[in-house]
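in:
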């Protein structure tokens, strides 16, 4: 059993991948609790896909992928916020328009670069085993910035999410914190890009947080549980990928999904088995 756990760690790229998977497994679910509780899953999915043009441009210019992804993610988040702020468009309509347009632009740019199939698979599904030391520093830096922002503005995010009337009474700048939350989501998606790719990034936001929501209604507890589920999914998924020779990003998401299914079935007072037992 010990050899089974230690054998993969003799490879430096596995150690880097393990660290990256744990970091992303903690960062994404913590912010994902807001995504789940505010019903913003569609926004998260759209934002994950709209960063593709920025990633492709960085790739074509031989820049770090995080630079283009971060710039495009922030611009997209601000654009969606601007289009929906005064009610000119419903949020889902604005998201749908930007989602489709930007994703199509990314594919068009990528198709003009050659090696279309290989590059698209890399962007969409991640390359966890190819994580370099510089990628780890990017994930750690962006993730720390996100978590510190959530920590310092925890009460403000809580109020605008669950008690907007009290937030208005206290004259909190609701629009500012709404934009800030959108930007944080985009930054967090960038941190998960190398680990699980654009397509699977939403799963690391939604699935651990949804699992935690079945076990507690207190936001701090939900964040802690979701981070634990995410970190465990990252570790278990990487080992599953190593020994079964399957895509690492998909393995991580499958572990998180299995944990959700088990929790959904057995959660005290809420699980299906508990309810009908």
């Amino acid at each position: 059993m010990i050899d089974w756990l230690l054998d993969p760690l003799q490879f430096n790229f596995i150690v880097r991948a393990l660290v990256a998977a744990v970091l992303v497994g903690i960062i994404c679910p913590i912010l994902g609790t807001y995504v789940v509780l505010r019903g913003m899953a569609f926004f998260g999915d759209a934002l994950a896909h709209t960063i593709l043009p920025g990633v492709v441009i960085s790739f074509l210019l031989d820049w770090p992928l995080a630079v283009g992804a971060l710039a495009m993610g922030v611009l997209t988040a601000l654009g969606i916020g601007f289009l929906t702020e005064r009610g000119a468009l419903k949020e889902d309509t604005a998201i749908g328009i930007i989602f489709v347009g930007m994703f199509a632009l990314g594919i068009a740019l990528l198709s003009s670069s050659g090696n279309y199939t290989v590059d698209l698979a890399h962007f969409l599904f991640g390359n966890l085993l190819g994580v370099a030391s510089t990628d780890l520093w990017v994930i750690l830096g962006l993730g720390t910035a996100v978590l510190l922002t959530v920590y310092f503005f925890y009460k403000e995010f809580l109020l605008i999410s669950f008690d907007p009337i009290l937030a208005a009474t206290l004259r909190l700048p609701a629009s500012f914190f709404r934009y800030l939350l959108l930007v944080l989501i985009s930054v967090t998606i960038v941190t998960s890009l190398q680990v699980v790719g654009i397509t699977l990034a939403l799963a690391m936001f939604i699935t651990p947080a949804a699992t935690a929501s079945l076990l507690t209604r207190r936001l701090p507890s939900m964040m802690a549980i979701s981070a634990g589920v995410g970190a465990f999914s990252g570790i278990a998924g990487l080992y599953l990928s190593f020994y079964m020779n399957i895509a690492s990003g998909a393995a991580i998401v499958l572990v998180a999904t299995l944990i959700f299914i088990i929790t959904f079935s057995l959660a005290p007072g809420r699980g299906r088995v508990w309810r009908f037992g």
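note: The chain has 14 helices and no strands.
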